[in-house]
Write a structure and sequence with these properties.
single chain; about 270 residues; mainly alpha; Serine Threonine Protein Phosphatase 5, Tetratricopeptide repeat; 3 strands; about 0% strand; elongated; disordered N terminus
């Protein structure tokens, strides 16, 4: 399950990059990509007979409140569970994260890691805290720790995306591109899964957003995904990307230069947003 407060992907589960990715839970709402998946969580409800309504666990009740964006109530619910349950600690952190109470969110993620030191999702989520505070180096450190434990799992696509975003924040564009490439390799639709991921750059200048979209266009062009490359090129130009001559120089676009749509982009003067 993916929650999205504050600038990257937050994982809500039991494995920790955003704590065990909770894929069966409510959806994204914010800027960071959070993962809250539980794998073998304590106190899971046993299967019920078809004619008997299932009894909801504390975790499930909290997840319902999260889906309704009732984050304070969700925190109260998660706190009714076992204080030794790392998944509940991680999800409590996500709820605080959604309320932009980053200090409380950090404490919850750190508690989840004390209880489960290899909790990938919690590592990821802790990284998003430092990203939100513009402490990019510390964010990168936590993302890398998470990726050492889960280098090529499906959940790692979001972590690589977060890593790339933090590198982009440091203006380490080659490192950002390498991380984004890994994210796309694991999940070709990772950026689409997370919707308007460009929102993570909302605190940056228009020029930085334009550059970000240009780099994404290059990634998609290199991957042979022409439509997506054109889409992000348009965004970059609309946001005032100034180095338009690069479109005729960068090798990633070599296979697109004869396309009418590409030629139109070169010739047009997009309305800058």
């Amino acid at each position: 399950m993916v929650y999205r407060p504050v600038a990257i992907v937050i994982l809500a589960g039991l494995s920790s990059a955003w704590c065990p990715a909770q894929t069966a839970n409510p959806a994204a709402t914010g800027r960071a990509m959070l993962d809250g998946t539980r794998t073998s969580a304590p106190g899971a409800a046993a299967p019920q007979a078809l004619n008997n309504p299932p009894t909801l666990t504390i975790e499930q009740r909290g997840d319902i409140l999260m889906a309704r964006k009732q984050y304070r109530e969700a925190i109260d619910m998660f706190q009714q569970g076992s204080p030794k349950d790392p998944v509940l600690c991680n999800k409590e952190g996500i709820a605080y994260h959604q309320l932009t109470q980053l200090g409380n969110a950090r404490k919850s993620y750190e508690q989840a890691l004390k209880l489960k030191p290899d909790y990938v999702e919690a590592m990821n989520n802790l990284g998003t805290i430092y990203y939100a505070q513009r402490s990019f180096r510390r964010a990168i450190s936590w993302y890398n720790k998470a990726l050492k434990l889960a280098p090529s799992e499906s959940r790692s696509a979001s972590i690589y995306m977060n890593l790339g975003t933090a590198q982009f924040g440091r203006k380490k564009y080659e490192a950002a591109t390498a991380a984004y490439q890994m994210a796309l390799k694991i999940d070709p639709d990772v950026f689409e899964h997370h919707g308007n991921f460009g929102v993570m750059l909302e605190e940056h200048s228009v020029q930085e957003r334009a550059k970000y979209h240009y780099y994404l266009a290059k990634l998609y062009a290199k991957d042979g995904r022409t439509e997506m490359a054109l889409q992000y090129l348009r965004k970059a130009l609309e946001e005032g990307f100034k180095e338009k001559d690069k479109l005729n120089k960068d090798p990633e676009f070599a296979g697109m230069r004869d396309l009418p749509e590409f030629k139109q982009l070169i010739a047009s003067e997009p309305r800058v947003l």
